[in-house]
Amino acid sequence: MTQNSVSAIKAALVANGLIAAMKLIAAILSGSASMMAEFKHSLGDWANGFFLLIGIRQANRPSDDRFQFGYGKRIFFWSFVASLGMLFIGGALSIYGGVLKIIHPEPIGFVLLNLSVIVISILLEIYSFLMALRAIVRETGIEARGLKLIFSILPALAKATPSTRFIFLEDTAALFGLVVAGGAILIVEHTGAIVFDGVASIIIGILLFFIGFGTARENVSAILGESADPELITAIGDYIMTIPGIKDIHNVRSMCVGPNSYLLELVVEADQMFELDDSDDIGFFVNGLIEKKFREISYAHISVIADDRVSQWESERSNCSEGHLDRG
Length: 328
What we know:
The chain is mainly α. The chain has helices at 2-30, 33-59, 74-103, 111-140, 147-156, 162-191, 195-223, 230-241, 279-293, 313-327; strands spanning 246-258, 261-270, 297-306. The chain has a three-stranded mixed sheet. Helix 1 (2-30) packs antiparallel against helix 4.
């Protein structure tokens, strides 16, 4: 999984580095605000790639006495930093540049150069986008192909690692921004209305602002220890209820400790015939089954008590379903 993310990030680094250099030259020569906005976008994307690589490297460190659940959350922190870069460097500065272009319009030169840079940039971004798409497919196990893959990829984003998801959204925004910038330059060239160049810069900035804000919010939730998806908890609970001797489950709690990695805590009620000395064996048995079947569970703490003959799992299961609707 980590190798998939690293490959996608390295592809994005190479593409964004080349694209940023070309856009800067074109923006300086032409005076285009939308092209300058695109340069800031690519520069931010390039820097963000390094942040994501740092996060992956630190997240792979083994657990120790100080961080007993590992360093998995480090990737959320560095992804959060990358989100802020997209939000402020890419978003806010692009909006500011667009407003200045509208207030103080200047003619655009070297139109052919600008359009050539945009075409080459689109090809490089498509390469980076496909690498990110392939990483998501491998991480999430999507089996769909062709058009079905397009409809399957959005729901799968939630299961992808933060770094891969960020690169995918980043590349999607970049492709959209390039189309907007190219369209604005063509409109300005044919109509002479410089205002469209500034408007394009603002549109690109708004897109980057919202993507940066959304990804930052997701990473903050993970850093704070967001619970596992209710569907996962429901699946785990239903599975445990099929284990012979288990009568009920309650007090289910979970916390994110890394990318697609969770700490799970719950209480199971065993058949009243079990003896106190057997509780540890039952707990280890259930723990092993959970970690074997659900790879998202990295740590599990199972408490075993006698059946009180009061069913509680169905109530908690309903709460999980309501939680899923709230998230949706």
